[in-house]
Amino acid sequence: MDHFLYRDGALYAEDVAISDIAEAVGTPFYVYSTATLLRHFRLFDEALAGMEHLVCYAMKANSNQAVLKTLAQAGAGMDVVSGGEYRRARAAGVPGDRIVFSGVGKTREEIRTALEGGIRQFNVESEPEMVVLDAVAQELGRVAPITIRVNPDVDAKTHAKIATGKSENKFGIPIARAREVYALAAQMPGLQVIGIDVHIGSQLTDLAPFELAYQKVAELTEELRADGHQITRLDLGGGLGIPYERSNADPPLPSDYGALVKRTLGHLGCEIEIEPGRLIAGNAGLLISEVIYVKSGEGREFLILDGAMNDLIRPAMYDAYHDIIPVIEAAPGIEPQPIDIVGPVCESGDTFAKQRPMPPLHAGDLVAFRSAGAYGAVMASEYNSRPLVPEVLVKGDQFAVIRQRPTFDEMINRDTIPEWL
């Protein structure tokens, strides 16, 4: 469920007309719903009720300060994967003891920043990282709390570019070597082993891969405890999918996921961490774009928008599907016609949809890309010297620009001309 609905034929974000935002901000722009962000966070929080737990929002999905602050004030922790994300979380008021640091390539400087600023735990991905983390912690006179990310070799049955739990993926250590690696960690004075981390991928639409992975984690927990390790926390990652195509069956609900966690891991008495990103932010955002031209081609029509692949890269990068709807609802009885929906960037890959059934649209009309709140603005670029798309947050009948569109002068003046030119 989201809070983007038609009223009298016009699309609204909560109680604000999308067309009013477009008039004030210009297009393209992202718009997020506070009510939807909070609803999705609370669904996860309630799903784990009865267990000691922390829902750590995966910032890589959408790291705008206003989004982070909205979720942090509701009680969310944060899952970060870079020093920049760590600094963003802290700037949004998130205390260090509610920040989990994941990622395969943590640098010495990033580790130092997190240790000095406060951290809940590092999710360690490899033995070399463990050695560096131990050394930096000892240099600072600290002890770093860690989980070790295990790769359970489970097929998440998702897109190959967002699968993370198979043996050929770069993430974690093979679960078959876990006891050996945990024994090594226990010998390092700068580390404190507190738990296990696992994350098998993103946009999962079936609970079966989660169940298989968590069963393996439960077995490993018992083995590590038998070896003398204090396993008190299980970080289960994120990955639950969202319904990008409204015509398809919906993915499992957070309540179903929570029941699975309790069934497979509840007997261990561990604190549970989960790291949802897409399911919290995805359906909480739209990308709004204006039609520039309707062009007739050889045997097909093209809807050319002012939004492009630099604003929303997912279709070009993942062949991802987004529902695209008119901001002004089509009149009853209007028959949709197939049309290619494209952007103005000079790449054939700047195509959002091919032969998508759409009602008749004209230059100046607005369209909305649904489910664009995750991996949209954070992956945007200034390719073709197009300004970064602005972001807007709505709460009830209020809206605010939470990232401004840069001017062309601001973009150009970031460049520095060498003295010899």
Overview of this protein structure:
It is built from 12 helices and 21 strands. By secondary structure, it is of the alpha/beta class. It has 2 domains: 4-31 and 282-412, Lyase, Ornithine Decarboxylase, Chain A, domain 1, CATH 2.40.37; 34-280, Alanine racemase (TIM Barrel), CATH 3.20.20.10. Strand 8, helix 6 (127-140) and strand 9 form a beta-alpha-beta unit. It is globular.
List descriptors:
421 residues; alpha/beta; TIM Barrel; 2 domains; nine-stranded mixed β-sheet; eight-stranded parallel barrel
Mean pLDDT: 93
Dominant shape: globular
> Could you give the distance between the termini?
56 Å
Give the strand tally: 21
| Alpha-beta content class | alpha/beta
Helical percentage = 25-40%
Strand content: 15-25%
Unreliable parts: 158-167
| Radius of gyration using CA atoms only | 23 Å
- CATH fold node name of the largest domain: TIM Barrel
Largest sheet: 9 strands, mixed
Tally of discrete structural domains: 2
In CATH, the homologous superfamily of the largest domain goes by the name Alanine racemase
Number of helices: 12
CATH level-1 class of the largest domain: Alpha Beta
Corresponding CATH architecture of the largest domain: Alpha-Beta Barrel
